[in-house]
Amino acid sequence: MLHLKVQKNNPDSDAEENILVDLLSRHNYKEENIIYPAIDKLATAEEKQVLFKQMEGFPKKDMRLAAVTTIKIVALPAEHGASVMLGESLLAGLLIAVSGHGFLPALGWVFLFLMSNPLKIAIRIFHATYLQQERP
Amino acid sequence: MALGFFLATFYYSGPSFLLILIGVIPLGMIHLWAVVNAGKKEFIAELFGALTLGAAAASIILAAGHFYVQAMTVWAILAIRAGTSVVYVRHRLNQTRGKGYNLALLI
Predict the structure, then answer these.
(1) pLDDT by residue (tens digit) across B31-90?
(2) pLDDT (average), residues A39-59
(3) Is residue A116 part of a domain?
(4) What's the total number of domains in chain A?
(5) Range among A22-26, A51-55, A85-89, A95-99 with highest mean pLDDT value
(6) Which residue has the higher pLDDT, A119 or A4?
(7) Is residue A38 located within the same domain as residue A85?
(8) Interface contact A99, partner B, CB < 8 A
(9) Of A34, A128, B48, B78, which sits most exposed with the smallest number of CB within 10 A?
(10) For the residues of B41-104, what is the DSSP string, one character each?
(11) Does B51 touch chain A (CB under 8 A)?
(12) A37 plus A86 within the same structural domain
């Protein structure tokens, strides 16, 4: 569903995104707490060494691209309307009260805004991982 | 970083702008709650997000040494403007997608 909505440029996909985050959070939780500890227990020292060698062989360019994409998704708010609203609010404040002191809270608001997306993702992951574990 | 800039504002401009930041906390909490429990609550998330962002202007105005009345007036104007924008865009999108919308509200 999410894939189809993205293909059709349909922005009404919050519910599907939440389901995806919920699903990935459970997946992550199981990986971190069940699969990886089990692999650590079962794999021999040689097998681990081979695995690490293979990981080091991944193309550096692809690794860098994946890291940059992840940072962009997490750090930048997806809602462009919200950026415009903040810009409008900051501009209104700075134009009405022309003063050097006004720039300090303005910068504070910009960083608070940039913090909002990682915070939302963290809350969604926490919510999906720890507060809804009993849901099938 | 945000905390650093707000502390610097507190140091240079005094505590007056803190009232806005304290006032905006419940709005931001409602926004976050609605974002986490999205679905039927998207409208609440958008509305309270817009109200929260409007507070930026008010805090700048207070930090620059203006009166509360001026700051609150600007916040109210931005809140009304943002609120109507949210309602308008939602109905407009519903109209584009052929879903139910209120023509009177759009006009």
Answers:
(1) 888 887 765 567 888 888 888 888 888 888 888 888 888 888 998 998 898 888 888 887
(2) 84
(3) yes
(4) 2
(5) A85-89
(6) A119
(7) no
(8) yes
(9) A34
(10) THHHHHHHHHHHHHHHHHHHHHHTT--HHHHHHHHHHHHHHHHHHHHHHHHHHHHHTT----HH
(11) no
(12) no
pLDDT in tens, A60-103: 777 788 777 777 777 777 667 788 888 888 898 888 887 777 78
Length in residues, chain A: 136
A136 and A88 within one domain: yes
A96–B53 CB contact, under 8 Å: no
- Confirm or reject contact between B98 and chain A (CB < 8 A): no
pLDDT, average across residues B87-101: 75
CA distances, B57 to each of A7, A101, A116, B5, B17 (Å): 37, 13, 18, 15, 11
| Shortest distance, CA A70 to any CA of chain B (angstroms) | 20
CA max distance for chain A: 68
Candidate from A11, A79, A107 with C-beta closest to B5? A107
pLDDT, one tens digit per residue, over A90-99 is 898 888 887 7
Asked if B39 lies within 8 A of A98 by C-beta distance, the reply is no
Contact B57 A112 (CB under 8 A): no
Q: Structural domain of residue A34, as residue ranges?
A: 1-42
| Tokens linked to A107 | 């910068």
Among the partner residues A85, A115, A127, nearest to B53 by beta-carbon distance: A85
Task: Report CB contact under 8 Å: B49, A79.
Answer: yes
Position A22 in a domain: yes
- The radius of gyration of chain A's CA atoms, rounded to the nearest angstrom, is 21
User: In angstroms, how far is CA B21 from the centroid of its own chain?
Assistant: 12
Beta carbons of A98 and B59 less than 8 Å apart = no
